[in-house]
Amino acid sequence: MVYGLPSKQTVNAVEGRLRARDVRVGCRLWMLDGQRTVPTTVTAVATARAREVVDVVTDSVSFTVAPDQMLGTPDGWVHARDATGTVLAWTHARKLCRTRLTIKPGYELGYLVGANCADGTVGRNYVSLVVNDEAFASRYAVCLTAATGLPARLEAVTRPSGYLRRDVPGFRVRVVSSYLADLMRQYVGAMRTTCGSGFPGSSSGTGSEDQWSGVASGRGRRLVLARCVQG
Predict the structure, then answer these.
(1) What is the DSSP letter of 93?
(2) Is 123 helix (H, G, I), strand (E, B) or coil?
(3) Taking a C-beta distance cutoff of 8 angstroms, is the pair 212, 110 a contact?
């Protein structure tokens, strides 16, 4: 197997972007250590001739790698040659230092996504839900913590009502995490365009029944299971 990058492909160095051919012993590059990106120092560089490369084209970025290069997905690692149709994990260079969450697939994740679709807000670096129903908000907070590990708490708030022409009481759950906000955008986009293939934890790309049941519960709808057929 051949792993690596073409000589002109850029990589993220701590001091800025470099072409692969310009990486030298002693250069400091970003690498993934568990759930966090950390700087590492290059101790050796090897070159090899390759007869073929793979151009990976997504809706956000394009790059070229060796056919056997491993790429991250919500369901684990895949070879670049086998990545057609998969959702890839990637990070803006300015967000390399942020902590990556360990997402637990299942009912709670589905409920979190469904509730956000129904009544939530996904900001640039936060996810929040403001509703009148305390039980709904409390369940949302519990599911958010169970699915992401992030602490979430219920807050009593008031908000103006144009219909009643006065402030009305409500309940808010708000978690600051740009990583979670990006995940919510990814998951909802996948639900809309790829029959849920952006959900983690399912190699088949359709998500577990428990997870879809959670989506339906979070949105306040009865679950109807159907098979997604992509042509």
Answers:
(1) G
(2) coil
(3) yes
**In whole angstroms, what is the distance from residue 113 CA to residue 208 CA?**
14
Closest CA to 117 of 226, 178, 190: 190
What whole-number distance in Å separates Cα of residue 107 and Cα of residue 143?
8
Residues 9-39 pLDDT 10s: 888 888 888 898 999 999 999 887 765 678 8
CA 39 to chain CA mean position, Å: 22
Structure-block tokens of residue 60: 């956000």
User: How wide is the angle at C-alpha 130 spanned by C-alphas 128 and 136, nearest 5°?
Assistant: 100
Backbone angles phi, psi at 217, to 5 degrees: -65, -40
Instruction: Identify the three-state secondary structure at position 46.
Output: coil
Instruction: Beginning with the edge strand found earlier in the chain, give each strand of the sheet holding 155-161 in spatial order.
Output: 120-122, 126-131, 166-176, 155-161
Residue 37, SS3? strand
Q: Tokens standing for 54?
A: 């793979």
Reported as a single tens digit per residue, the pLDDT across 117-138 is 888 999 989 999 999 999 999 9
192, containing H or E segment: helix 178-193
Pick from 36, 4, 7, 213: nearest CA to 110: 213
Q: Which pTM was predicted?
A: 0.63
Query: What is each CA distance from 33 to 39, 62, 71, 100, 181, in whole angstroms?
Result: 9, 24, 15, 10, 22
Look at residue 205 and give its three-state secondary structure: coil
